[in-house]
Amino acid sequence: MIRGINKKHKVGCLMPSKRINPADWLTALDESGFRVTTVQETLIDIFARSEYPLSAEQAWEIARQSRPKTGRATVYRMVDKLENLGLIRRVHGYQGCSHFVPTLPELMMLFICLSCGRADYLDSQPLEDLIQHSEHTSGHHITDSRLQLFGDCADCQENA
Amino acid sequence: MIRGINKKHKVGCLMPSKRINPADWLTALDESGFRVTTVQETLIDIFARSEYPLSAEQAWEIARQSRPKTGRATVYRMVDKLENLGLIRRVHGYQGCSHFVPTLPELMMLFICLSCGRADYLDSQPLEDLIQHSEHTSGHHITDSRLQLFGDCADCQENA
DNA sequence: GCCTTATTGAGACATGGTATCAATAAGGAT
DNA sequence: ATCCTTATTGATACCATGTCTCAATAAGGC
Questions:
Q1: How close A86 gets to chain B, by Cα (Å)?
Q2: What integer pLDDT is reported at residue B89 of this predicted model?
Q3: Domain chopping of chain B, boundaries
Q4: By CB distance 3.0 to 4.6 Å, which of A4, A144, B8, B69 could disulfide with A117?
Protein backbone atom coordinates (compact mmCIF):
# COMPACT_ATOMS: atom_id res chain seq x y z
CA MET A 1 0.00 0.00 0.00
CA ILE A 2 1.18 3.46 -0.72
CA ARG A 3 2.39 5.25 2.31
CA GLY A 4 0.88 8.56 3.08
CA ILE A 5 -1.81 8.26 0.48
CA ASN A 6 -4.43 9.44 2.90
CA LYS A 7 -2.38 12.13 4.54
CA LYS A 8 -3.32 15.69 3.90
CA HIS A 9 -0.68 17.77 2.29
CA LYS A 10 -0.56 21.42 1.57
CA VAL A 11 0.08 21.05 -2.09
CA GLY A 12 1.32 18.43 -4.48
CA CYS A 13 4.49 20.14 -5.42
CA LEU A 14 6.53 17.09 -6.28
CA MET A 15 4.63 15.32 -9.00
CA PRO A 16 5.04 17.30 -12.16
CA SER A 17 1.42 17.07 -13.21
CA LYS A 18 1.61 20.44 -14.86
CA ARG A 19 4.18 19.13 -17.22
CA ILE A 20 2.05 16.24 -18.37
CA ASN A 21 -0.66 16.64 -20.94
CA PRO A 22 -3.21 13.80 -21.18
CA ALA A 23 -4.05 14.90 -24.69
CA ASP A 24 -0.50 14.10 -25.75
CA TRP A 25 -0.88 10.58 -24.41
CA LEU A 26 -4.01 10.06 -26.46
CA THR A 27 -2.18 11.33 -29.48
CA ALA A 28 0.62 8.89 -28.77
CA LEU A 29 -1.84 6.01 -28.60
CA ASP A 30 -3.52 7.14 -31.79
CA GLU A 31 -0.23 7.47 -33.62
CA SER A 32 0.77 4.00 -32.51
CA GLY A 33 -2.27 2.67 -34.30
CA PHE A 34 -4.48 2.06 -31.28
CA ARG A 35 -8.09 3.11 -31.10
CA VAL A 36 -8.84 5.91 -28.70
CA THR A 37 -11.46 4.80 -26.20
CA THR A 38 -13.12 6.19 -23.11
CA VAL A 39 -11.38 3.76 -20.76
CA GLN A 40 -8.11 4.99 -22.07
CA GLU A 41 -9.06 8.59 -21.48
CA THR A 42 -10.16 7.73 -17.97
CA LEU A 43 -6.98 5.86 -17.09
CA ILE A 44 -4.64 8.31 -18.70
CA ASP A 45 -6.27 11.04 -16.71
CA ILE A 46 -5.89 9.06 -13.51
CA PHE A 47 -2.21 8.44 -14.00
CA ALA A 48 -1.41 11.91 -15.26
CA ARG A 49 -3.19 13.56 -12.32
CA SER A 50 -2.04 11.35 -9.48
CA GLU A 51 0.38 12.79 -7.00
CA TYR A 52 1.47 9.30 -6.03
CA PRO A 53 2.71 6.23 -7.83
CA LEU A 54 -0.29 4.04 -8.61
CA SER A 55 -0.68 0.31 -9.04
CA ALA A 56 -3.02 -1.18 -11.64
CA GLU A 57 -5.33 -2.23 -8.82
CA GLN A 58 -5.46 1.27 -7.41
CA ALA A 59 -6.05 2.74 -10.84
CA TRP A 60 -8.92 0.30 -11.32
CA GLU A 61 -10.46 1.35 -8.05
CA ILE A 62 -10.27 5.01 -8.99
CA ALA A 63 -11.53 4.35 -12.51
CA ARG A 64 -14.67 2.67 -11.26
CA GLN A 65 -15.65 5.75 -9.32
CA SER A 66 -16.34 7.60 -12.54
CA ARG A 67 -16.84 4.58 -14.78
CA PRO A 68 -18.28 1.73 -12.72
CA LYS A 69 -18.29 -0.92 -15.43
CA THR A 70 -14.55 -0.69 -16.05
CA GLY A 71 -13.04 -4.18 -16.12
CA ARG A 72 -10.02 -5.24 -14.15
CA ALA A 73 -8.28 -6.92 -17.06
CA THR A 74 -8.76 -3.83 -19.16
CA VAL A 75 -6.89 -1.76 -16.62
CA TYR A 76 -4.03 -4.23 -16.52
CA ARG A 77 -3.91 -4.28 -20.30
CA MET A 78 -3.92 -0.51 -20.40
CA VAL A 79 -1.16 -0.19 -17.82
CA ASP A 80 0.87 -2.60 -19.90
CA LYS A 81 0.27 -0.61 -23.01
CA LEU A 82 1.15 2.68 -21.36
CA GLU A 83 4.33 1.17 -20.00
CA ASN A 84 5.28 -0.27 -23.37
CA LEU A 85 4.69 3.08 -25.01
CA GLY A 86 6.92 4.60 -22.37
CA LEU A 87 4.20 6.89 -21.06
CA ILE A 88 4.37 5.55 -17.54
CA ARG A 89 7.23 3.83 -15.78
CA ARG A 90 7.45 1.30 -13.02
CA VAL A 91 8.64 2.32 -9.59
CA HIS A 92 10.96 -0.28 -8.07
CA GLY A 93 10.99 0.03 -4.39
CA TYR A 94 9.68 -0.12 -0.94
CA GLN A 95 6.06 -0.35 -2.01
CA GLY A 96 6.85 -3.35 -4.15
CA CYS A 97 7.41 -3.10 -7.85
CA SER A 98 3.91 -2.66 -9.21
CA HIS A 99 3.39 1.06 -8.98
CA PHE A 100 3.74 3.47 -11.85
CA VAL A 101 4.44 7.15 -12.40
CA PRO A 102 4.11 9.19 -15.58
CA THR A 103 7.25 9.40 -17.65
CA LEU A 104 8.68 12.78 -18.38
CA PRO A 105 9.95 13.46 -21.88
CA GLU A 106 13.52 13.78 -20.66
CA LEU A 107 15.28 10.88 -18.97
CA MET A 108 14.96 11.67 -15.30
CA MET A 109 15.93 10.11 -12.00
CA LEU A 110 13.13 9.20 -9.62
CA PHE A 111 13.11 10.16 -5.98
CA ILE A 112 10.46 8.67 -3.68
CA CYS A 113 9.75 10.23 -0.31
CA LEU A 114 9.49 7.53 2.34
CA SER A 115 7.46 9.82 4.52
CA CYS A 116 4.73 11.15 2.21
CA GLY A 117 5.09 8.65 -0.62
CA ARG A 118 5.26 11.19 -3.38
CA ALA A 119 7.62 11.01 -6.34
CA ASP A 120 9.95 13.67 -7.59
CA TYR A 121 11.95 13.87 -10.78
CA LEU A 122 15.58 14.89 -10.68
CA ASP A 123 17.89 15.89 -13.46
CA SER A 124 19.53 12.80 -14.89
CA GLN A 125 22.82 14.23 -16.05
CA PRO A 126 24.67 12.74 -13.06
CA LEU A 127 23.27 9.33 -13.95
CA GLU A 128 24.43 9.64 -17.52
CA ASP A 129 27.88 10.53 -16.28
CA LEU A 130 27.87 7.58 -13.90
CA ILE A 131 26.91 5.22 -16.68
CA GLN A 132 29.64 6.43 -18.94
CA HIS A 133 32.18 6.13 -16.18
CA SER A 134 31.08 2.62 -15.23
CA GLU A 135 31.14 1.50 -18.83
CA HIS A 136 34.74 2.57 -19.05
CA THR A 137 35.95 0.94 -15.88
CA SER A 138 34.00 -2.32 -16.22
CA GLY A 139 34.23 -3.09 -19.89
CA HIS A 140 30.53 -3.86 -20.01
CA HIS A 141 28.34 -2.19 -22.58
CA ILE A 142 25.54 -0.51 -20.64
CA THR A 143 22.32 -0.12 -22.58
CA ASP A 144 19.80 0.57 -19.85
CA SER A 145 19.62 1.60 -16.24
CA ARG A 146 17.27 1.83 -13.34
CA LEU A 147 17.92 4.21 -10.51
CA GLN A 148 15.77 5.17 -7.61
CA LEU A 149 16.47 7.35 -4.66
CA PHE A 150 14.61 7.23 -1.36
CA GLY A 151 14.50 9.51 1.65
CA ASP A 152 12.69 12.49 3.11
CA CYS A 153 11.59 15.14 0.68
CA ALA A 154 12.28 18.80 1.27
CA ASP A 155 8.66 19.39 2.31
CA CYS A 156 8.59 16.61 4.86
CA GLN A 157 11.84 17.71 6.39
CA GLU A 158 10.40 21.18 6.80
CA ASN A 159 7.16 19.94 8.37
CA ALA A 160 8.83 17.47 10.67
CA MET B 1 38.51 -3.79 -7.57
CA ILE B 2 36.46 -6.86 -7.84
CA ARG B 3 35.11 -7.51 -11.16
CA GLY B 4 37.01 -10.70 -11.51
CA ILE B 5 36.46 -10.44 -15.17
CA ASN B 6 38.85 -12.80 -16.74
CA LYS B 7 38.52 -12.51 -20.42
CA LYS B 8 39.86 -15.97 -21.03
CA HIS B 9 36.89 -17.61 -19.39
CA LYS B 10 33.56 -17.96 -20.99
CA VAL B 11 31.61 -18.96 -17.95
CA GLY B 12 31.31 -18.08 -14.34
CA CYS B 13 33.59 -15.16 -14.00
CA LEU B 14 31.18 -12.47 -13.00
CA MET B 15 29.58 -13.62 -9.77
CA PRO B 16 32.08 -13.12 -6.99
CA SER B 17 31.47 -16.43 -5.31
CA LYS B 18 34.99 -16.62 -4.02
CA ARG B 19 34.40 -13.61 -1.91
CA ILE B 20 31.37 -15.06 -0.21
CA ASN B 21 31.76 -17.45 2.66
CA PRO B 22 28.66 -19.47 3.57
CA ALA B 23 30.09 -20.00 7.02
CA ASP B 24 29.89 -16.27 7.64
CA TRP B 25 26.23 -16.30 6.75
CA LEU B 26 25.56 -19.05 9.27
CA THR B 27 27.43 -17.04 11.86
CA ALA B 28 25.30 -14.02 11.02
CA LEU B 29 22.13 -16.06 11.52
CA ASP B 30 23.43 -17.46 14.77
CA GLU B 31 24.40 -14.06 16.06
CA SER B 32 20.98 -12.73 15.18
CA GLY B 33 19.51 -15.29 17.54
CA PHE B 34 18.25 -17.76 14.97
CA ARG B 35 18.79 -21.46 15.19
CA VAL B 36 21.15 -22.91 12.63
CA THR B 37 19.41 -25.65 10.66
CA THR B 38 20.16 -27.85 7.71
CA VAL B 39 17.69 -26.10 5.42
CA GLN B 40 19.49 -22.90 6.11
CA GLU B 41 22.83 -24.41 5.26
CA THR B 42 21.41 -25.81 2.06
CA LEU B 43 19.86 -22.54 0.96
CA ILE B 44 22.78 -20.37 1.92
CA ASP B 45 24.99 -22.61 -0.11
CA ILE B 46 22.70 -22.36 -3.08
CA PHE B 47 22.62 -18.60 -3.06
CA ALA B 48 26.29 -18.17 -2.33
CA ARG B 49 27.29 -20.50 -5.15
CA SER B 50 24.90 -19.42 -7.86
CA GLU B 51 26.29 -17.57 -10.81
CA TYR B 52 22.91 -16.12 -11.54
CA PRO B 53 20.28 -14.21 -9.60
CA LEU B 54 17.84 -16.77 -8.17
CA SER B 55 14.17 -16.56 -7.28
CA ALA B 56 12.76 -18.31 -4.23
CA GLU B 57 11.07 -20.78 -6.54
CA GLN B 58 14.33 -21.58 -8.29
CA ALA B 59 16.14 -21.95 -5.00
CA TRP B 60 13.42 -24.34 -3.85
CA GLU B 61 13.83 -26.45 -6.96
CA ILE B 62 17.58 -26.66 -6.46
CA ALA B 63 17.23 -27.35 -2.76
CA ARG B 64 15.01 -30.35 -3.35
CA GLN B 65 17.67 -32.00 -5.45
CA SER B 66 19.81 -32.54 -2.40
CA ARG B 67 17.08 -32.32 0.23
CA PRO B 68 13.83 -33.58 -1.30
CA LYS B 69 11.56 -32.86 1.64
CA THR B 70 12.34 -29.16 1.71
CA GLY B 71 9.13 -27.18 1.97
CA ARG B 72 8.21 -24.32 -0.27
CA ALA B 73 7.16 -22.00 2.52
CA THR B 74 10.42 -22.64 4.29
CA VAL B 75 12.35 -21.41 1.31
CA TYR B 76 10.27 -18.26 1.06
CA ARG B 77 10.73 -17.66 4.78
CA MET B 78 14.44 -18.19 4.46
CA VAL B 79 14.77 -15.86 1.50
CA ASP B 80 12.92 -13.26 3.51
CA LYS B 81 15.21 -13.74 6.44
CA LEU B 82 18.34 -13.54 4.33
CA GLU B 83 17.07 -10.39 2.69
CA ASN B 84 16.23 -8.82 6.04
CA LEU B 85 19.65 -9.67 7.36
CA GLY B 86 21.10 -8.04 4.28
CA LEU B 87 22.83 -11.21 3.12
CA ILE B 88 21.08 -11.28 -0.22
CA ARG B 89 19.53 -8.45 -2.16
CA ARG B 90 16.71 -8.22 -4.62
CA VAL B 91 17.41 -7.60 -8.28
CA HIS B 92 14.96 -5.19 -9.84
CA GLY B 93 14.82 -5.73 -13.47
CA TYR B 94 14.02 -7.43 -16.65
CA GLN B 95 13.45 -10.81 -15.07
CA GLY B 96 10.89 -9.31 -12.76
CA CYS B 97 11.69 -8.27 -9.23
CA SER B 98 11.87 -11.58 -7.43
CA HIS B 99 15.43 -12.67 -8.00
CA PHE B 100 18.22 -12.30 -5.48
CA VAL B 101 21.99 -12.08 -5.47
CA PRO B 102 24.37 -12.33 -2.52
CA THR B 103 25.24 -9.00 -0.97
CA LEU B 104 28.85 -7.99 -0.86
CA PRO B 105 30.17 -6.36 2.30
CA GLU B 106 30.72 -3.07 0.55
CA LEU B 107 27.91 -1.13 -1.06
CA MET B 108 28.13 -2.02 -4.70
CA MET B 109 26.31 -1.29 -7.91
CA LEU B 110 24.74 -4.20 -9.73
CA PHE B 111 25.18 -4.84 -13.41
CA ILE B 112 23.07 -7.50 -15.11
CA CYS B 113 24.02 -8.85 -18.50
CA LEU B 114 20.97 -9.04 -20.74
CA SER B 115 22.65 -11.64 -22.87
CA CYS B 116 23.94 -14.22 -20.38
CA GLY B 117 21.95 -13.15 -17.35
CA ARG B 118 24.84 -13.02 -14.95
CA ALA B 119 25.38 -10.31 -12.38
CA ASP B 120 28.47 -8.24 -11.79
CA TYR B 121 29.32 -5.90 -8.97
CA LEU B 122 30.78 -2.51 -9.74
CA ASP B 123 32.47 -0.06 -7.47
CA SER B 124 29.88 2.22 -5.97
CA GLN B 125 31.86 5.38 -5.49
CA PRO B 126 30.22 7.03 -8.52
CA LEU B 127 26.82 6.28 -7.00
CA GLU B 128 27.78 7.82 -3.71
CA ASP B 129 28.93 10.92 -5.54
CA LEU B 130 25.71 11.04 -7.50
CA ILE B 131 23.66 10.80 -4.32
CA GLN B 132 25.54 13.59 -2.66
CA HIS B 133 25.16 15.77 -5.70
CA SER B 134 21.43 15.10 -6.01
CA GLU B 135 20.84 15.73 -2.35
CA HIS B 136 22.45 19.06 -2.75
CA THR B 137 20.56 20.17 -5.80
CA SER B 138 17.14 18.81 -4.81
CA GLY B 139 16.91 19.61 -1.12
CA HIS B 140 15.68 16.09 -0.41
CA HIS B 141 17.41 13.99 2.20
CA ILE B 142 18.43 10.77 0.50
CA THR B 143 18.68 7.78 2.81
CA ASP B 144 18.65 4.87 0.39
CA SER B 145 19.10 4.10 -3.25
CA ARG B 146 18.63 1.41 -5.78
CA LEU B 147 20.62 1.31 -8.95
CA GLN B 148 20.87 -1.28 -11.61
CA LEU B 149 22.68 -1.30 -14.88
CA PHE B 150 21.86 -3.52 -17.82
CA GLY B 151 23.63 -4.34 -21.04
CA ASP B 152 26.12 -6.72 -22.59
CA CYS B 153 28.94 -7.88 -20.37
CA ALA B 154 32.53 -7.79 -21.51
CA ASP B 155 32.51 -11.55 -22.08
CA CYS B 156 29.41 -11.56 -24.20
CA GLN B 157 30.66 -8.71 -26.34
CA GLU B 158 33.83 -10.62 -27.01
CA ASN B 159 32.08 -13.86 -27.86
CA ALA B 160 29.47 -12.23 -30.06
C1' DG C 1 19.19 -37.45 27.33
C1' DC C 2 15.41 -34.14 28.40
C1' DC C 3 12.64 -30.07 27.61
C1' DT C 4 11.40 -26.04 25.64
C1' DT C 5 10.34 -23.75 21.77
C1' DA C 6 11.97 -22.09 17.14
C1' DT C 7 11.69 -24.01 12.83
C1' DT C 8 9.81 -26.97 9.45
C1' DG C 9 6.56 -29.24 5.86
C1' DA C 10 2.15 -29.83 3.91
C1' DG C 11 -1.42 -27.87 2.22
C1' DA C 12 -5.10 -24.36 2.34
C1' DC C 13 -5.44 -19.70 1.29
C1' DA C 14 -4.72 -14.83 -0.57
C1' DT C 15 -3.06 -11.73 -3.93
C1' DG C 16 -1.66 -10.05 -8.32
C1' DG C 17 -1.80 -10.77 -12.90
C1' DT C 18 -3.23 -13.38 -17.50
C1' DA C 19 -6.18 -15.96 -21.00
C1' DT C 20 -10.65 -16.71 -23.11
C1' DC C 21 -14.45 -15.32 -25.49
C1' DA C 22 -18.81 -13.22 -26.46
C1' DA C 23 -20.44 -8.41 -26.55
C1' DT C 24 -19.38 -3.68 -27.55
C1' DA C 25 -17.89 0.38 -29.81
C1' DA C 26 -14.09 2.89 -32.88
C1' DG C 27 -13.57 4.72 -37.03
C1' DG C 28 -12.95 4.04 -42.13
C1' DA C 29 -15.87 3.30 -46.18
C1' DT C 30 -20.13 4.18 -48.33
C1' DA D 1 -25.48 9.49 -41.02
C1' DT D 2 -25.25 4.34 -41.50
C1' DC D 3 -22.93 0.13 -42.20
C1' DC D 4 -18.97 -3.05 -41.52
C1' DT D 5 -14.93 -4.64 -39.88
C1' DT D 6 -12.29 -5.59 -36.19
C1' DA D 7 -9.80 -3.72 -32.04
C1' DT D 8 -11.13 -3.27 -27.54
C1' DT D 9 -13.77 -4.34 -23.61
C1' DG D 10 -15.89 -6.84 -19.40
C1' DA D 11 -16.83 -10.95 -17.03
C1' DT D 12 -15.02 -14.82 -15.46
C1' DA D 13 -12.03 -18.66 -15.20
C1' DC D 14 -7.55 -19.46 -14.60
C1' DC D 15 -2.54 -19.40 -13.21
C1' DA D 16 1.64 -17.95 -10.52
C1' DT D 17 3.62 -16.21 -6.74
C1' DG D 18 3.70 -15.65 -2.17
C1' DT D 19 1.50 -16.13 2.80
C1' DC D 20 -0.86 -18.44 6.78
C1' DT D 21 -1.94 -22.30 9.82
C1' DC D 22 -0.84 -25.89 12.55
C1' DA D 23 0.79 -30.32 13.88
C1' DA D 24 5.33 -32.56 13.67
C1' DT D 25 10.22 -32.05 14.03
C1' DA D 26 14.70 -30.90 15.64
C1' DA D 27 18.05 -27.14 17.83
C1' DG D 28 20.42 -26.31 21.60
C1' DG D 29 20.40 -24.94 26.64
C1' DC D 30 20.04 -27.54 30.74
A1: 15
A2: 92
A3: 18-104, 106-160
A4: A4
